[in-house]
Every structure is written in C-alpha cells, then in structure tokens.
Design a protein that fits this description.
seven-stranded mixed β-sheet
C-alpha cells in the first residue's frame, strides 16, 4: 500500500537505520577487549573457586564497594578448581587472611569479585594466593533449596505432591 508521505517515510526510516548503525559502531569502537591490558599498575594474586559462574576476564574486583582491580586471567587447576588471577592496585595492601567471594549486582545483575580483608599483619605479595574463597550462588540452586525445604516442611519430600483434580 502506497501512502501520501512515501518519501517522508523513506527518509525517516533511513535516518533511524543510520542512527542505529552509528550507535552500534560507537559501542563496538569504545568496547574494551577482554584480553587487552588497561595499563593498570598493580600486583597479581590468585584465588581458587569451585564455581566461577558469571565471572570473566575483565570482571571488576571490589573492596568495600569500591573498584580496586580486575580479573586478568582464568585457568583450570589439576584438581578441577577454577584459578582466577586478580590484578590489584598497588596502593591497596591486602592482609594475608583476606577472603574473596563472588557476588551479584542485584538479583540478576553482573557478577564481580568482592575482597573481604582479614586482620592479619602480614600482607599478600605479588603472586600469592588468597586463602579463603566463597563460590558464586546460582539462582537455580537457591530456588531448588527453597522448594526442597518447603516440600519437607509440608511432608512431601519423598512422595509426589497431591493432585487437585480427580
């Protein structure tokens, strides 16, 4: 169907497509490459996790809610645990009994590594390992635990739920 403003519709459509292409181009150009060094000075520490769900190279490392580093490498250890290498800013000294945990920004947000400093006088040096870690919580596992507790509380843990239709 041809409308009266056919040329106008074509021009507006072309403008929308060109603006969308420009925005996508800017996002692509300004996006940081995962393996690219961001020239951040700092020292490297490692942490071993059983699960790294949602953590990738470039994920932020936070201390007291402030960014203090990034995840720079990931590998699999012979014991099938995920080894993460973190680059921490030079001005941040972590006690030797620091803990690392994986948290989520909100319910379904991005994941990041949180450092929880201990009280020991010794500090972690370049190349040392964070001794205490807490894996990421997967929302499906959490929901399964809630459902299992509810079923156990109602007495349906080992038998099927009753049907409301006969």
């Amino acid at each position: 169907m041809v409308t009266k403003g056919g040329n106008r519709d074509t021009v507006i459509g072309a403008m929308v497509v060109s603006v969308a292409a420009l925005v996508l181009g800017l996002v692509y150009v300004t996006q940081e490459e995962p393996g690219k060094s961001d020239n951040m000075d700092g020292y490297l520490v490692t942490a071993r996790f059983s699960r790294l769900d949602g953590i990738t190279v470039g994920s932020p490392v936070r201390l007291s809610g402030l960014p203090v580093g990034k995840v720079v490498a990931q590998s699999l250890a012979p014991d099938f645990r995920a080894v993460t290498t973190l680059r921490i800013r030079n001005d941040v000294s972590l006690p030797a009994d620091t803990a690392a945990a994986i948290h989520t920004d909100g319910l379904l947000g991005a994941k990041f590594v949180v450092l929880q400093p201990g009280a020991e006088d010794r500090v972690l040096a370049n190349g040392q390992e964070i001794p205490f870690t807490q894996d990421s919580m997967v929302i499906e596992d959490l929901m399964d635990m809630i459902i299992q507790q509810a079923r156990a509380k109602r007495g349906y843990l080992d038998r099927p739920l009753p049907s409301i239709t006969n």
